[in-house]
Amino acid sequence: MIKRTLLVENKTTITTKNLQLVLKSEIRESTVPIEDIGFLVIDNSETFLSIPAMNLLIENNTSVIICGNNHLPNGMFLNLKSHHIQQEIFKNQIDASVPLKKQLWQQTIVEKITNQGILLEMITGDKNSLPFLASKVLSGDSSNMEGVAASQYWKSFFDSNDSEQAKQIKFKRERFGDYPNNFLNYGYAILRAATARALSGSGLLNTLGIHHKSKYNAFALADDIMEPFRPIVDEKVYEIMQNFEEQELNTAIKAELLQILTRTVYFKEEKSPLMVALQKTASSLQQCYTGDWKKIKYPKLWS
Known about the structure:
There is one protein chain. The protein is α/β, with parallel strands linked by helices. Helix content is about 45%, strand content about 15%. It has a four-stranded mixed beta sheet, with helices on both faces. A four-stranded mixed beta sheet has the order 4-3-2-6. Strands 9-10 form a two-stranded antiparallel ribbon. Helix 7 (about 180-200) crosses helix 10. The relative contact order is 0.13.
């Protein structure tokens, strides 16, 4: 089932009644069945979210995303007991061998570079060397093909964008950089939240990553698994730049970026919305930790 994404930008009181989320602002009052909500994005510091509403959302495995003063997602609430054998899954994840994690990271980076290469060719109309770089990824990506590919990818990505905005910028990919980094960062933050939600739903511990290991990162595993999906955000931002003149995040831009959650991706036997596909990917990772599977089940981003 495709879950709804709610974006709250006005001062709103959020409570619950009869398993319905009640949203009341100065403009209107609306109710939404809690079971229908996959993501609640709160982008107003004066919003009130009641504890009963928060608990029901979390019990429903809804990802509650809080935005900071810069309007970028700043944190999220997730269900910590979303699987019936969670302790066993945690143990398998903690006990995973270094060779297994290196193999899983190798596969993840191959998928990421492959997807970047496909998108770059779609955008520029020219062949590129990224498929070759993907074939050279070693176990654990010890030769850092991810970094080499990223340098080539971003150097060419916006060059073929014929929008006026693209012509006026010299793009440099930075976490806190200028436009269109703000669009990319918002999209990545939404993707990260969706990935964390899927991993949590499969009983996995988001703090314990395959490759990302910072002691300050509570979502290291989400940062790992989202990597092959990043080109979905890149593609959407490229499209936004061609259709919108704005360089600041506004309601329309955010709504466009939130659409990535329902974008169609493709498994061998079926197609699926991204938020559902992430659940399949998370489930396959869980089975890699148990030894039932050898590879993470990543979808193709384009048919």
